[in-house]
Amino acid sequence: MTDPYKAQRTMxxxxxxAMQRGVIGILDIGxxxxxxxxxxxxxxxxxxxxxxxxxLAGQAGFRVIGAGTTRxxxxxxxxxxAMSETERAVRTALQAAQKMAQTRVDHVILCASGGGxxxxxxxxxxxxxDTTVAEDDIxxxxxxxxxxxxxxxxxxxxxxxxxxxxxxxxxxxxxxGQTGQRLACDxxxxxVDTAAISDLIQCLKRCDVELAGIAxxxxxxxxxxxxxxxxxxxxxxxxxxxxxxxxxIFIKKHMxxxxxxxxxxxxxxxDISKGLRVDFATAERIKTFYGGVHATxxxxxxxxxxxxDSGDWEKDRRTVSRSELIGIMRPRVEEILxxxxxxxxxxxxxxxxxxxxVLTGGASQTPGLDGLAARILGQQVRLGRPLxxxxxxxxxxxxxxxxxxxxxxxxxxxxxxxxDFELPTERYxxxxxxxxxxxxxxxx
Length: 444
Fold this sequence. Notes:
This protein has helices at about 5-20, 85-100, 135-145, 195-205, 215-225, 230-235, 265-275, 280-290, 300, 315, 320-345, 370-375, 400-410, 430-444, and strands at about 25-30, 35-40, 60-70, 75, 80, 105-110, 120-125, 155-165, 170, 180-195, 210-215, 235-240, 245-250, 255-260, 305, 320, 355-360, 380-385.
């Protein structure tokens, strides 16, 4: 019988092989920038005393030895729109990171922000053959989870057990070795468009590197931007990137929901470009230096010189008040936040014990955004920066690098997923087996 988990298992083996060699690449292909990091993996290493780097989240197990970023090309909504342009940009970022690290990278782990992620909550239950929970019992209860029909042209990106219950005890993270009669499991399944992932994989092949894993950008951004308490008690991470905004909800240190909004910072820049009749690069500069979402009476008098080199002297010498700029930016930012609120409401976020919201991603740095978000989302809101990790250059410590830093944590210490367990096929319920096999055969 063919192994329905072959693609994911192959990537896990490659990751382990790369870790044994001690070096692995990290690649975040976004709409605005492409970031590449090179990790040196050393499980025995510990951070230097007083370095400000904690022992949490496996930070003791690796250090960043190379970093490279470049302006993204040929990517829209986090998906490849022009393969050759994206390939050139990925090569540029990877070469810069390898040059800094003074080593070659053969395997990379990738994060995907496009592909229209969808979340499913699954549940399964089995009777224990022995009173003690063993590895194959975990495999059987995962196999008993009833897989939904995820639709044609979609594939599974994450399948993580998020909760185990043994008899009447629930909230168990790992029931192995404990005693009971019945074992139940809740699993979170995340699916994406196959075409979007296939294009990213094809791009990496053209760059002569092997894929050792894929993670959802919404998931890894949450892993790095949410502090331990927030991941435990319940929080949402809103990763506002250039082309899309990732939404993820965590509780008990597990992601239980993810979604994305196909709007981001580039759409705000596009509005400025049209509103002020300037090119995209000039609009980006104006947004970065003078942008905001909350106007005061002083902003009416604060004039911004638009600049430019169109050759038309009158046009290039125009000025605009900061209030006008904010008037262009605010409606689009409000639209993004309203869309995010719709996703959180659909997920039932208000039922969590804690309703902390953390904004991260490059576009989260817009002045006044946290205040506006608190009004629209109606919760406690803070701006999140990624965790400190060893060796990360200062330029790569801002909110724009949350996904890349989270991917480092994912690479060094991935969570258990469905395909990490050898599922005993002879013990499958027949219906579940047929459906799971058909589903994996169609999508891998």
